[in-house]
Structure formats: C-alpha cells, structure tokens
What does this fold into?
Amino acid sequence: MREQYLEAVLAVADLIPPARVLSYGDIAALLESGGPRQVGAVMAAQGSAAPWWRVIRAGGQAPQGHERQALEHYRQEQTALRGDTAASWRVDMKAARWNPTEAEFDLIDAIAATLQEVDDAGSEMSVPRDGIQE
It folds into this structure.
C-alpha cells in the first residue's frame, strides 16, 4: 500500500472530532482516492495510530471484531447510538456523521492534494537518457 495514501487516510481520521464518525467511503470520497475497501485496509493495518473507532461502516456498525472496545469509546465521547447496547446497536449515522467546517475542508483538501501530486508525479513519462529517437 502506498505510504502517502496510508498517511492521508490516517490524517483525515485524526481530524474527526470526538462523538463524530465517518464511514470508510466518506474518507475515500473526501480524499477523492481509493474506496471503502482501501480505507478499511489502511485502518486495519495502521488504524491503531488514529481514533479508529470514529471510522466505521456506512450502516453505523463499529469496526468488525472491535465492537466492545468501540462501544467504550462511544460511551465516553457520548456518540449518538441506536438500539440496545446490551444486544444489537449501531452508531446513529444521521446524528453522528461529521460535517467538516470550511476550515476543516481546507485541511482535508490539502491532504488530498498531496495524493494528487504524488499521482501526477508518478504518471509522467520518463525520457530515455539519450533523448527520444525518431
């Protein structure tokens, strides 16, 4: 996985305030790169370096296998939940989804721009040492 993409996903996750969440797809859309699976792969591999419980599935389910730990974080942060937390529950995406401010969008755009710069630099055609022969 590209190091720049990993860093970008984690940087966006770090911006999510307490009691707010984004889905994997939300982060991919904000970065205009990858998709939910790519963001999920980053969070699975390196998510412990960020507030991983704030990046969830679009249906409001906590990261798979980490539901109990996530619920502790949600309770501490007072994240909006739906359902019975003793049985079947989810994050209330309508209430808890993070809506960045203009200043926060500027930060996200700057993060996304670094990915675009890397993509643009990597897509340039290299020129042979002896020049182009016709």
Observations:
- The longest strand covers residues 81-83.
